[in-house]
């Protein structure tokens, strides 16, 4: 299976419409890939809080329309990163879009863990409440977003729902890059799953981004890692390695907490 992670740069001076066009062009260039992934909130920047409301859109808004056309042209499954979504009641969400090769919306995930503590996303956006998996030919995706990476119980839930490949778009700051790499590897090892973590380059509202998108296999081995700047990270991986790893080292079978009555 071939995956391409588009570590797009978000910089001041480029309009959202221009960035959509540029992202669509980059998606089309990945024809031949099975899965293409964009980062979190790449239309506005993850720290551009004042833009969330102004640029909010519906699930089938301009970002979906642009990315659906690009996915169809390229013939790829596309995790289109996330956008600021406004629901019919007016609530904002940080919502990821997964689009099929035919240009259909296959799934939408509203980010459960909102970053910011008492400001930013944490107070501007509502929290999602549902885990999302998507079946692709050869693997099942488990969908999470950025700050979710710090909460292992979410990923246990995705594994219980059948996830074998964990896809995590992010707008992760450079000053915590060591956490990004560490947590991506930890989520892969503890869940015996692939992790495809796609970050942004550039600077979001004065916050330098980590870049360093990363693909980790079920044993925790880093298969590929980007640098800090805009880059398309492409990697071939074998989805069958998940089942082999879980069979050879069946640690998930020894789980006790969260599974009802402990064994004696």
In the CATH hierarchy, what is the superfamily? Carbon-nitrogen hydrolase
Q: What does the largest sheet look like? A: 6 strands, mixed
Number of strands: 15
- The CATH architecture is 4-Layer Sandwich
Structural class, by secondary structure, is alpha/beta
The string of secondary-structure elements, in order, is EEHEHHEEEHEEHEHEEEEEEH
Number of helices: 7
Apparent shape: globular
**What spatial order of strands do you see in the largest sheet?**
6-5-4-3-1-15
Report Rg: 17 Å
Per CATH, the class reads Alpha Beta
Description of the structure:
By secondary structure, this protein is an alpha/beta fold. It has a single domain (2-254), classed as Nitrilase/N-carbamoyl-D-aminoacid amidohydrolase, CATH 3.60.110.10. It contains 7 helices and 15 strands. It has helices at 16-28, 49-55, 62-74, 121-124, 152-160, 177-191, 241-248; strands spanning 2-7, 9-10, 35-37, 77-86, 92-99, 105-110, 132-136, 139-143, 165-169, 194-198, 201-204, 207-208, 214-216, 222-225, 231-236. The strands form 3 sheets. It has a 6-stranded mixed beta sheet with strand order 6-5-4-3-1-15. It has a 6-stranded mixed beta sheet with strand order 7-8-9-10-13-14, covered by helices on one side. Helix 1 runs parallel beside helix 3. The longest helix is centred in the C-terminal third of the chain and has 15 residues, at 177-191. The radius of gyration is 17 Å and the shape is globular. Mean pLDDT is 96; it is low at 260-264.
